[in-house]
Design a protein that fits this description.
- This protein is mainly alpha-helical.
- The protein has a domain of 61 residues.
- The protein is built from seven helices and two strands; from the N terminus they run E-E-H-H-H-H-H-H-H.
- Strands 1-2 form a two-stranded antiparallel sheet.
- A hairpin with a 2-residue loop joins strand 1 and strand 2.
- Helix 2 crosses helix 3 and helix 4 crosses helix 5.
- The protein is extended.
- The relative contact order is 0.07.
Length: 135
Amino acid sequence: MIFGKLGKYSKHKLKIETDDELDIYKISKYANGRSVSVSVEIEDGRRISPDQRNKLYALFDDYANWTGYSPDEAEALLNYSFIMPLCVNHHTEQHNKGIDSFINYYHIKPVKPDLEMLRILKIRGDYEDKEELDG
C-alpha cells in the first residue's frame, strides 16, 4: 500500500506526493504494459488516518514484542484496555444508536476474550474456576 499527501487536483486528476520513494520497477511489473487501476482514500478527519493506523499497528507489535503476547493478543488487550471504556457521551450514544449501529459507525471490532485473557485483564466473573481468579 502506498501512502502520501494530496497535492494539486482537478476534476479528473490527482497529484499525490508519496511518503516513501516509489518502486518504479514494481509498478511497471504490475502494470505489465497496461493502465494500472488504483484506489484512493481521502482522509475526512472523522476516522483514523492511514498514518495513525500505521502507528497503532506499530504500537501493537512493540507491545507484543515487549510482553511476549502474539500481535493479535496485544491488539485485543490494548483495544479492551484503552478503546472500550466509553466516556459518558459515547456511552449514551451507544444506547441511543443501538450496539450494532454504534460498532459500525466507529469501526469497532468486538473481541471475545478467552479465560486466559480475562485473567490477564483481571476481570472477574462467574467462571468455572472462579477460585483461581479470587486469588
